[in-house]
Every structure is written in C-alpha cells, then in structure tokens.
Specification:
The protein is an alpha+beta fold and 197 residues long. The chain has one domain. The protein has a 3-stranded antiparallel sheet. A two-stranded antiparallel ribbon has the order 4-5.
Length: 197
Amino acid sequence: MDTALRFKYLECLNRLQGKDYLASVISFGAAPTIKDKKASSLLAFSTRRKNIFTLWHCYKQEICQEFNLEYYELKNSTEVATVLFYKRKMLEKYLANKNNLDFLNSLGYREAVTLEEKLQLLKKRFAFTCPHEVGLFLGFPVEDVKGFIDNKGKGYLLARYWKVYLNRERAEQLFKIYDRARIDAASAVIRYSEEYN
C-alpha cells in the first residue's frame, strides 16, 4: 500500500470510535482472510490504543458474525488479547494437507485430530512462547516455517507477511493478493469515515 493511502487510512481510522474503530482495525488486519484469500489472520488487541482490548470483548461476536469469521483467543491476559481469525473450511483443508499434517504431528499434534483440538494445543503452547507452528495455522508454506526454524529466522529470500525461504515467486504473488485485500479494506474505511464523520 502506498504511503498516501496508508496515511489517509490511519487518519480516518483515528476519527472512528467504539465498534466502528474495532471493525475497521479487524477489516484491515484480517482483510485477506475476510476476502477468502488466506485461511487465517492473527491480531493482538491491547489496552493501549483506544482501549481496543475492551472494545474486542464488547463487540467480538457481533463483528465476527458481520465478517463471517470464526475466532480463537490464543492468549488473553489482563492487557492483551491475541486472536486468530479464520475461515474454518479453508483452515481445516490447509492443516489436513499431508506435508502440513506430518509437520504438525512431528511437533506433538498427533493426538489433536479436530481443528478445535489443534487450536487448544496451540493455545497451550502459546502460553509460554509464540510457537513456530503458528505459521502453519496462518497458512504460511510449511517449507518456509521449517526454513525459519532451521535458519533461526536468518538467511531468508524475502520478508513481508512471513519470511520466505523457498519459492520467492509464489510468495510474491500471494503478497500481492494480500496487499490488494488490505488496499480494498483501507479504501472502505476511508469511504465510511468520510461519509459518517
């Protein structure tokens, strides 16, 4: 997204309050998932910015229903909620891919058969650290998740939505698709803000 659009989006976002503010943050942050281009997105809501943490707890059901999203709170402290927004069928299909499933099983997910069981285990592991396999839950290619682990986050070909270790061209195409979804979301927030404020 170009600088002018980003600036305009942030300017309009900051004029919004309450549910409108939270919905606009989610619509941008989870745009590729809302547009069915990515199985899931991860966002954190803290008490710092317009107390979006409280807004999340007030409006989460309503907003997720409006966006046709499911959500799972991976971490919920007194100050921050870390939330995975997802499309169930897309995420189940992605995690069921043989290479992805084999990788998860190698990390202790063998007994976690259903999506709910996998998310519960991910949440348990999230309590101590941000586990590497979260990348798989976010739809990152398994070879890039493995590359990140093997290279300790260094030596990557490209870094945007994730660090790319193999197939740069495929990643660049996906990044363009995700960027387009976010540009559309930012433009919608700008239109809404200018119409109602």
